[in-house]
């Protein structure tokens, strides 16, 4: 009888354990181990179809197309219908609408807690990856608090001060180095040396990045260029510099070492820089690279991670026009189509031949405008024209698009405000 009772007790114990596992899996809210947020600068809904065609033809599938949830995001700032980079990124990083030019500060000048500050308070590792400078306004929204979004010297100081990152990869080395060492800093501080003295390992090439053991507890700074990294068509530079997808893969591998989980923010900024100069091929190629990086992340993060992809603010008004063939892709979409019309065109930017308002005025002494008109350059060949001339393509009033997969992303449907991105991350930390 004794062994029967013991056997019965064992079966009861196993049954209760199985019920506990089922209950935990289906009714207890589980936080994702990894949270990855991609920000595509200029990622509007209209950009998707053009990128799809450029990447492989009209019926090509992007990694974004396979994500579970999608929504349109409104993205005004506190004082304008169109946010600048700083205000748009701050809304994503803090969940608050702020004035244009402000990073991490509300209208009263008070600091607002951001995603990384919350994540570190909850024991998560943090990572920041960008293909532009680590001091660009979109990146800075996740670590800085300032009313001057373009003060890169100050942003670099805020980047260095405090334990804000475990892994940071990108460009912008000149903002961290004194002028005596080929940098931009007038205070002559060598911030890279200060970070190395604080325990960070510094590296500057793709080979060094790939050589880091995945088991090492990360405290890593990678600066692969003095400014933004190379475009994809600058092949020679990529023998030394990693691509966005390379940095995303390595960051995930290194951050997974932390038992408390991690948050990784990825800023795809080259697509904005290409759009500002009215370079359609680079704009679409860099958008496709963002999509490739998303695909890499989905393969490396595991099934129960949360991945979010969203735009910040529209830029330039890129359009793909006419009737490209269904299988046209890549260079087949550049220049003029069979009807003699440009396949790609812009609303504003340096390829425009007519200017209005302030763009007619040249800067006078001390940055003030004079009344003498700008001497316009010779009209560009009509390969990729812009309707209105501007020295750099301007921001547009557009909804952004957001995609999500994993825990918490089921709230992405219909139309929402861009602050929902912060809310999803915060609630899943």
CATH C-level class of the domain at 34-166 and 245-315 and 401-427: Alpha Beta
State the total count of DSSP E strands: 17
Specify the oligomeric state. Answer: single chain
Any guess at the CATH architecture of the domain at 34-166 and 245-315 and 401-427? 3-Layer(aba) Sandwich
Beta-sheet strand percentage?
Answer: 15-25%
Summary tags:
single chain, alpha/beta, Alkaline Phosphatase, subunit A, three-stranded mixed β-sheet, 12 helices, globular
Describe the secondary-structure layout.
Elements: H1 2-26, E1 34-40, H2 45-56, E2 69-74, H3 85-94, H4 115-121, E3 125-133, H5 137-140, H6 152-160, E4 167-171, H7 191-197, E5 201-203, H8 206-210, E6 220-223, H9 244-255, E7 262-268, H10 270-276, H11 280-300, E8 306-311, E9 314-315, E10 319-320, E11 344-349, E12 361-363, E13 369-373, E14 386-389, E15 395-396, E16 400-405, E17 415-417, H12 420-427
Parallel strand pairs: 1-7, 1-8, 2-17, 3-4, 3-7, 4-6, 5-6, 11-14
Antiparallel strand pairs: 2-16, 8-16, 9-15, 10-11, 12-13
Helix pairs in contact: 2-11, 9-11, 10-11
Summed up:
The chain is α/β, with parallel strands linked by helices. Helices cover 30% and strands 19% of the residues.
